[in-house]
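# step 3/5: fold
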Amino acid sequence: MGLWKALAEVFPAARHQRCWVHKARNVTNCLPKSAQPGATKAMQEIYHAEDRAHAEKAIEAFARTYGAKWPKVVAKITDDAEELLAFYDFPAEHWIHLRTMNPIESTFSTVKLRTKVTRGAGSPAAALAMVFKLVESAQARWRAITGAHRRPPRPSGPRGTRFKNGVLVEREGAAA
């Protein structure tokens, strides 16, 4: 958590996207086993919605369905709604990458697993070499970033380029 606080201090205007994978796990862990499949499906309806308006309606449906019995579970979604839906303000091609930080953790879980198995690497140089080789071999299985070929749009003013529901929003008075 120290990294996020440091980033907030250095980049105070930066938006923060909460990880849907971790949020879904936290929510389902607070529910009884019988309610977990339904809640998981309802959360998928939220983060796979076609735009922000549909996602907000899905959040309202989630709150109606689970609010009476589990208000604390609903609060986990509704209190963080702005951070959970921040990815809608970026190009649609990148939504799949912005919703979760699981790929980052998957990379380091490989390193963590091997470090536990070998009970450490011995010297710092051996540890660095082991981590490098593990990450290098793991990158062959990484999914390519969608839309990486796109040239980023030029900033449209002091606050930069704006997207709404994944589509570039032109400034008023600007030529199309």
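# step 4/5: annotate
Strands lie at 162-164, 167-169.
# step 5/5: archive (pending)
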